[in-house]
Structure formats: C-alpha cells, structure tokens
Amino acid sequence: MKDRDSRMNGLGRFFGVGVGPGDPELLTLKALRVLQESPVICMPKKGEHSRSYALSIVSSYLDPARQELLELVFPMKRDLDLLPTYWRAATDEIIVRLRAGRDVAFITEGDPLLFGTFIYVYDLLRQAEPSVAIEIVPGVSSVNASAASALLPLATTSDRLAIVPASYALEELSDILQRFDTVVLLKVNDVFDRVLDILESLSLTDRAVYVRRCTSPQEEIVRDVRTLRGQKLDYLSQVIVRK
Amino acid sequence: MKDRDSRMNGLGRFFGVGVGPGDPELLTLKALRVLQESPVICMPKKGEHSRSYALSIVSSYLDPARQELLELVFPMKRDLDLLPTYWRAATDEIIVRLRAGRDVAFITEGDPLLFGTFIYVYDLLRQAEPSVAIEIVPGVSSVNASAASALLPLATTSDRLAIVPASYALEELSDILQRFDTVVLLKVNDVFDRVLDILESLSLTDRAVYVRRCTSPQEEIVRDVRTLRGQKLDYLSQVIVRK
C-alpha cells in the first residue's frame, strides 16, 4: 500500500531505520534490506568535522558509488533555541530528495523513537509534506544491548523499569531510584559525579553498572562505578541500576 | 575466548537469543547466525498443547532435520509456588545437552532480558553450572516495535520513560502516569478496564494507543482505546501513553 501511495503521489518514501547499538551484526534483516534498497541514506552528526556514529555502524553495508550518503549536522548543544534551525535545514534537504521521487533512509544508532534525532525530523517532515509515506524500522536499543553485555536483567514478572536522561532528571532521580526496580540512566557523562552522590546516599552504588558504547569495539563495562569519579566519560555512556 | 573456555571445559555454550517482536525480518543478523549454528534450539511455551510464539517467528530459519527443537513448558499461571519447578525442569533439560558438549540457543520473543522467561533459566543455570559460557544476543523489544508501528515517539531529549506490567502496578499507576512523559503498559489484557478507568480519571485516555502483537500478521493498533472496554484482549497487548 505504502509503495503504491508513494508512486501515486510521486514522492519517495521516508524510512527511519534503527541500526542497533554498535555491533554491525545487531542490525535487523529488515534494516539491512531497507538500507541496501534506498538510494539516499541520511544520518545525523554532531558537527561539520565529526563522524556519524550511526554511519560507522553500517558503512560496510553501503555502496557510496551507488548511494548518496547525506550527512546532516545536529549540534549536541543545549542551546535549544538554535536546534530547530538545524532540524529544519536537515528536513529541507530530505524533502528535496523525496520530491525527486527518491526513497530516503534516515539512520539512527539504537532505536529511532528512543531519544533519536530522527523524531524531530519526522515531526517537521510530516508537517511540511503530510502525504509522504513514512515507515519506521525499530532497532535494538542501547538499553537492551547494555543489559545483554552486562548480563543484567532489566525486568522480570512484576518489575518496573524507568529509562531517564540523567542530566535532565537529577532532582527527581532519588525518588525514581527508590520507586523502580531497575533504572537505566542515559546522558550520564556530564553529571556522573552527582549521580554517584545520589547512588551513595541511597546505598545503591553496588547495584549500579556502567556501560560505554555497548557491543562496539570500544565497549567498556565497569562494575565498581566508584572508580569513575572525576573522570571524563564518553557521551555514549549509561548506568543500569538493578535492585 | 568464550569459544576456547567452552572447549576447555567440554561444555556447550548457552545463548539467550532475542528474536524480536514478531516479524521474522526483525531478527538481527547475529540472532540468525547463532540460531543457524546451534544444534539445539529451545523455547518456552505456555502449555503442553500450545505453540511457542518465539518458535513461530523463527521457524522458517530452522532445520528440524539437523537441529533439535526443544520445547519447554512454562505455564503462565500466577501460582508462583509452582513456577520454579518448571524452571528447574527446563534448566535440567538444557544442562544435559550442554554437558554433552552441544551449544544451546534459548529463544525469546522481543529481548531476552526484558520480561523474558529466559531470565529465570539463566539464573538457575549459572547456579548449577557456573563455568558454562553464556552469551546474550539482545533483540528488538516489543516496546520499541509497538512505538514504530504506531508512529509514536517513546522519548525525546529530556523525557522520562517508564515500562511497567500493568497487572502488577495498578495501585501506583496513577502516580507513574503523572510523573513520566511516556508510560508503556505491558500485561494489560487482564486489567484493561481498570487501566481505562485510571486513564479517564487523569484525562489521558486520548493520549493512549493500544497495540496488539506488533509487526506480526495479527498486529492491531487501536487509537480510540475506549472501544476496547469489556473486550477479551490478547495477552501480547500493550498500551503506550504518550503525553
């Protein structure tokens, strides 16, 4: 149906494709097929001279001679006023290609709908071009993959799981940690020492495991999280607290 | 390393493999490889005469002439006293094969560590046979896949996401719904009408979407969840509440 709609309105299709947490073998069969069939692959990167993490995961599956690799800059600044300008510019680049009848696959590490840049582009695209056919290919999120690397259950039968960006939730963190059986903290790198203070105040430090760039060659698992105090941490870090 | 350890101790390796939410194309490349390389594939099913959902997802990738398909019964009863007996029996079946030097892949729908039966077997196995090499292959969870099917973001930048089994969290549900930006309710089928009452009391009914067996041929998405009141629902149902 989507294929037919797309041909009828002359627009290319837009895919949001989760490419998994880091290991290229954790792509789904569907993600691989969509990527190999799409003439345009676009991806977020943090700055003009940085490299897209999502691209590094899938680069061996792509053919730059046949496919356009469109890198879109999305600064990771907290300057929220400026960000929409970048999202709009990126969306415009995508729309030009969709209007030319070309399918576009937007790749994100992990899953597209869980803290992905994709979500902003998706919202703007639907506003600007409501008739475009959109399909989202879910991916293995870094939350599930970190738990697998650390051999740590996320939830059984009656457990409650919270997934929170630590840098935006410091004030409520103590409360959340007390109420949930498992808490996964993303965006911990800038606030790690404060997170550690909160964990210590609740005697939960021994229940926390730090995971960096799970399933990638740079993966690191630290079970004594106290040793990380004062260190500069990777922005692709998370902490799983399992009671 | 794991391979060598395994050969040194003579035991087969044990894999927990997430096979994704329902669409066989949402298997990862790694899950497919591990499944095709494992001489024993084991899977949970609810009763002697029922069929394993995980098996239905991967059956086209397996070769029963070459591979043993070991179905293990895990009743879905709330009789918590009885369940460990089944887990232990299942673990014993697995250990017999590992001691014979055969690799065993335990498959679960979605992700093995997010509400999977795998977790109980994994715990018992580590106690009974601490030297066995264990690897977990994370999968696309039904949480991410339901959001993709419903085209509904799970979380952006500063959002908090809670994943809770509704049937075990009715008393705290109102509080959780007020504190989190997105709440995914699993195990809703038996308590759906009570969940609906809570959503209505918070004026959140219009923010809820029901998803059944996401990405499978039986997928169903219901955006007016009021229409489901009083109905018998599939046990593989979830509700996403996105504020």
Give the largest interface.
Answer: A-B, 56 and 56 residues
CATH superfamily of the largest domain in chain A: Tetrapyrrole methylase, N-terminal domain
Please write the CATH class name of the largest domain in chain A: Alpha Beta
Mean of all residue-level pLDDT scores of chain A: 93
Distance between the termini of chain A: 46 Å
Q: What is the N-to-C order of secondary-structure elements of chain A (H for helix, E for strand)?
A: HEHEHEHEHEHEHEHEEE
Number of strands of chain A: 10
Unreliable sequence segments of chain A: 1-6
Helix content of chain A: 25-40%
In brief, what are we looking at here?
With 243 residues, the first copy, chain A, is of the alpha/beta class. Chain A has eight helices and ten strands. The first copy, chain A, has a five-stranded parallel β-sheet with strand order 3-2-4-1-5, with helices on both faces.
What does this structure look like?
The structure is a homodimer of 243-residue chains. Chain A is 33% helix and 21% strand. By secondary structure, chain A is of the alpha/beta class. Chain A has 2 domains: 2-137, Tetrapyrrole methylase, N-terminal domain (Cobalt-precorrin-4 Transmethylase, domain 1); 142-242, Methyltransferase, Cobalt-precorrin-4 Transmethylase, Domain 2 (2-Layer Sandwich), CATH 3.30.950.10. In chain A, strands 3-2-4-1-5 form a 5-stranded parallel beta sheet, with helices on both faces. A 5-stranded mixed beta sheet of chain A has the order 6-7-10-8-9, with helices on one face. The relative contact order of chain A is 0.16. Chains A and B meet through helix 2, helix 5, strand 5, helix 6 and strand 6 of A and helix 2, helix 5, strand 5, helix 6 and strand 6 of B. Strand 6 of chain A pairs antiparallel with strand 6 (161-165) of chain B.
